[in-house]
Amino acid sequence: MIDITIENFETDLLAVSAQVPVLLDIWAPWCGPCKQLGPVLEKLEEEYAGRFILAKVNADEQPEISGQLSQMFGVRSIPFCVMFTGGQPVDGFVGALPEAQIREFLAKHLPSEDELLAQAETQEAEQLAETGDADSALALLEDALAKDPGNDEARFDLIKLLVAEGALEPAQAVFEPIASRATGPLAEMRVAAFGRYIEALAQARQGRSPTELSAILEANKRDFEARFDMAQLFFAAGHFTDAMDELLEIIMRDKAWSDEKARKTYVAILEVMTKPQPKAVAKTAAPGDAPKLEIAGKVEVPAANPVIDQYRRKLSMALF
């Protein structure tokens, strides 16, 4: 349990809620229902064993926090509980609810035990993949997806490993449950990018050899079909910059070639290379700054990848 004040609101509530849900209990010493609710919440926090963190704020001592949240949700009484996830207040309830109703409320916002295990396995698998232990990483990712089929990053990481091993059919099977999200007016860029990644492997299996393609391009640098096929070979092999170099040759000469297929594949490669954005987290105040309540969390910008940045600039220059 954490006691929240204006001084630690950002660091101990917003920032923490970017990693694990935080339930903020707004209470006061004179409030009878608050005294009934408090022990129930503390019991549930212990029982749920890390699936959420309980935070408490004294409404009399911290009126800026309680006042802004009450105004935000249109609430004028306490106890008032607010659920924070991803650095944002997302839901709440008023009054000393029975334990069963509080459990129902928590169920709407907390990851299941399987989801938590899947997240941990995905993180461990990423570390194993970086050290070259692909077999162990594959096993963990497969187990993570079995536990939580909605874990997109586990799915994408698994596809990466399968494509790297040339396992086309398994990669297609892993992608199939989300394939519909890659098309239509609401197509998701990251899903579409991994679809193109798998397509590159399929084409590499069926297409012309690197030696044959090199000979064709030596004779005719403007053979865009051959150059695109070469880019697909590089893409499927994980030689991303080589693939983008080939695609740039097409884009610089004919931006609209084949319904902008070169540009779309180039963008897909950048997306496959890019790690997903982290959740919103709070920005802490600088030393000496006056404490200030700010509900909206800030997005922590990940360290720039110089290769990705370089190739984004190259594409921009080629297009304009």
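Next protein, fold it too.
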Amino acid sequence: MKHTTIQTLGELKQAGYTPKTMKEELRANLIKHMERGSNPFKGIIGYDETVLPDVQRAILSGHSMNLLGLRGQAKTRIARTLTELLDEWIPCVAGSELNDDPMHPISRTAHDSLETHGDLTPIRWMHRSERYVEKLATPDVSVADLIGDIDPIKAANLKLAYSDERVIHFGLIPRSHRCIFVINELPDLQARIQVSLFNILQEGDIQIRGFQLRLPLDIQFIFTANPEDYTNRGSIITPLKDRIQSQIITHYPKSIALGMEITELEAHHTKEQLKRVTVSPFLRELVEMVAFEARESEYVDQKSGVSARLTISAMENLVSSAERRAIINKEKKTHARIGDLMSIVPAITGKVELVYEGEQEGPHFVAMRLLGMAIRKKFPQIFPSPETIKRKKIQNPYQPIIEHLANENVQILIDYPRDEYANVLYSIPVLHEIVDKYCPGIQDEERLMMMEFVLHGLAEFSVIGKTVMDSSIEFSDIMNDIFREDKDND
């Protein structure tokens, strides 16, 4: 239907317009996508076999939905993608504040317009991007915000009784007629406010200041909730929960690869950064592993969850760290290094909730511990495990490195220019031979990164010592470190 050529109710009738409810509209468009094999849920990764089939079933059933999951599990993003299942344009009665369908008006304004103008009633066309309304549930949300209230000034000016519908100032929900309406963090909504949603979900009634209105509102309700909120701040009251027809459980990425795909999609980098900084897939994997380690860490509150925003922010910091070094050293191009992982600590400390033991150790310690665990887990996947070498008593390929550090500490400045960085790493015996042996065909910049990774990996297995300072990382003999710590304690 060419909406640009239809401007009145009469023209709309002649064009053969047939009204559809929200649920019919969503269902019909979803079926079209499924039959074509196209994906309306763009940007939703890792849910193809779990969450999205449940969402599709809910839409086919005509259900309202509650997306239940920990923070950073794309609940709001799923809700926003549902606008792709709406018709691109729909007609509304011009001037109506409730987006009235010209064929089925529900507001007094729309009825008056139709009575006055008949088939000449002007039509406004509403794009699907306008048909999404979102409200964050907070304790201060009132019934007036959601449902509406009596406007005494309007009543006085129009000389109308308070029982007249025309003196009502409608809230967000009635104004979302023929729209998708989302309430985020539903448990934060006070119980008495949740009660006001009962009849809207079930019968379409709203009650304002004791005056009951029969408004057959046509709304697709989507709610989101965090399981932890049920005990921390509130809960979804049972009668309301009973009226929400489908509850869909979300989850974190089930594999490192899926997590990396999400991070790459969501992380923001400027054009200048993309031109100047190269980040190895290996480093991207390490960043993702930090989040997976956090989701299993004894120091992190698992009930609170570890959001995907951790790795997104971490990746942005990693790139910025490399960019900063390139700017300082006046280098047009640079590669991110293992040392740049130290820059992601602020992204970790602000994104994890710690249990008592974690609070005792401190957020910085926990962040460094998570980084170390990711390196420790990845190291044996590429290089010989120091634990295996020790257990089987086989020749230690790392011995020349250990002996070198026994005589001379190695310090790597985080902002070293490329050539100085390479000189320090190549000064360590057999380091590049180990990398070439276990990473055949590796390119120069990748080789330097893996040479530094070997040092970090050995430190995580307590083969050599490592001290992280503000602007540098120092590697040393592990025994010297132990003696130094004992001396400091004395």
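About the second fold: The chain is about 45% helix and 15% strand.
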